[in-house]
Give the backbone structure.
Amino acid sequence: MTLMYGYAMIVISGALPLLLYRFLRGPSVPDRVVALEAVVALVVALLVLNAYFLDSSLYIDAALVLSIFGFISTVAIAKYLERGDLFAS
Amino acid sequence: MILPALAFFFLAVGIFFTFTGALGVFRFPDVYNRIHAATKTGTLGLLSILVSGVLLLGLDTVTIKALAILVFLMLTTPVAGHVLARAAYRTGVVLTDRTLRDEFRHVLELEEEEPDHEEPEGG
């Protein structure tokens, strides 16, 4: 029954080139940030599906850490775009 | 019997939202539309995938952490989308030609007229 998570990983991997196109093409900086944010979401989905598929607790720790880093980096880049300085009050 | 069927259903919904979210980031005409699609990928798609595993595998060390990821993502993904959309608008990324109404421009004009009432910004 967990084999369906293996097929799900194949389908979700097929969506990654679409986001790579948007990252390379732009046209603006927030477009690229959105593409990277969606890539992080998809990689978290792939890691969770792999953890379910193998019933292994290792991959889901990586998914937790990656989701935290994705949120922090998105907020940091957005603040840098808006203010021009990360550490201004 | 009912729980594997529900798990399969949630997995199908999750794959649908994840794939169509990526397709929206690829196809939509505008940064703001693309943020909308990417946020749907992060919330609805990942929620359905995580819930599917919880239903099929029961509560063990994998799915407890999956629930932690779920709570964290439900809290943070809309915030990230909002912050990014605001940064995009304030740095002057243009909206698409097919935009019908732009309400935030009016708010920004009010702020420029009365700089005393600028909203307090945290973070």
User: Anything to note?
Assistant: Residues 32 and 86 of chain B are 9 Å apart (CA to CA).
